[in-house]
Amino acid sequence: MKLDRFSVIILSAVLSAALLGGLLGNKVSAGSSADVSIRDLMKPFTEAIDVIDKNYVDKIGSDKVVYSAVRGMLRSLDPHSTFFESKEFSKLREEQTNKYSGLGIRVRSLFQGGGRVVVYEPPFSGSPAQKRGLRAGDIITRIEGQLIDDWSLDEVVGRLKGPRGSKVNITVERPGLEKPMEIEIERDDIQLQTIQYAFMLRPGIGYIKLERFSESTGDDLERKIKEIAEKDGTRLLKGLILDLRDNHGGLLKEGVEVTDKFISQGEIVVTTKGRSQKSETVYKAPSRSKRTFPLVVLINNGSASASEIVAGAIQDHDRGLLVGETTFGKGLVQSVYPLDDHNGLALTTARWYTPSGRLIQRDYSSSSAFDYLLPRKKAKSESETNREVKFTDSGRKVLGGGGITPDVLITARELSRFERILLAKDAFAEFARRVLSGKVSGAGRFARMASSGELTPEQASQSLSLSEPLLEDFKAFLKEKSIDFSDKDFTSNLVSVKRNIQREIFTSLFGMHEGFKVVAEGDEQLLKGIELLPEAEKLMATARNAIANKRTALK
User: Any catalytic annotation for residue 305?
Assistant: First the structure.
């Protein structure tokens, strides 16, 4: 039987996965019974590919069949073992290293379905885009002279990226200018930030939002903790809100690095266990952390993997309070293996356990992959009687399995149907662009002030009037966009409407950082976290006393 190039690739992929997996467990020697078994099992697989290639009703690419087979094989193991084609694998590596080569801008589709994109916040500091004068609100209409109206967002982003030193020509429309601008930009390496927001919520009370865990996260966090304290002038935080909501995780090593910023040297952060006893690894905090400020960690069902490692260690050591909703429940560790043709494989090679010994992995044997991976609210009827019970340093009861349950459960407010429609149609962002381009009569004075480029966030807060004339303009805008609503829809969502209009205006003027500050004041979980900082401080004291008493009893 003749095997084409893709059949050879899949054979190497299967054998690599089997043998590399063996390196973490019992080593497979040449000529062993396991080796014979793999060869035997490959025979029906290669025969099936040959039959499909010769007899299937339609002509299909061998790569489609082979790659689908690999994905099916991995799905039979667990939901987190994954095969990546070359583009997907390149993106994974980009996320892990937190670097790419491009322009240094964040864009989103101007219309539903793709096409033209808008630069929705100021370009990254020192980036090629900033050096060439791009601004928030600029609309990219062409790339290399080609209209992008029928391109997907992924296509646009892919064409804006490229090797360092290469150039790209873009056509930009700017509100207030009659003619589009032609701009040539030389691409450069861009360092992404793993920390989305970091600022003082209240005097002495810091807030840090971790977006993901990649190679620089631990260093980024250390720098931001120092920066926000210095900007406040106190040089000493009185409390910190660490936001891990919707952080899907990343590198285990960086989960350890983040936890290390808060717990004592030598305390266990996480333990991983592979399929053999020799593969157990205990990760302990390596640094002498002298930070004693109270800590609240915000979590929800989108918090997974490395986020849960941090949350689990903080909870087990009573270092802070967890506030929000139960986490996703991912207690498996994947090792990433590069394969031929720039493809890759993420294979589950271990389970991880919190310091108290909890395995927080959610059951995936009784549900489809779709149901398992879809973020869900914890069902009220979900039983906790069968969950493993462990205890924190101070003796508090905590549960294993099914994710990490917060110390204080605060369910996030669900958006109304009207809010969801406005957000889906990007109504707030488009209206904000109209405001800043001077096309909204109720905000003409503010638009003129904003166009000067000298407006500060504080001045903008004082100058922007979200009064009746502006709101009437917004209603007229919604009708123009054929968005149906009733007076009740508008009045019952008035606070949210005002906040979202201001958020988009501030995001365009000053970046996502200032836009987020606007909505933070309506975040119930965040506000509860601030309120609970004194309780977090008491919990730390209780844990210290409990540990001291245990040590005394052992003497």
Answer: yes
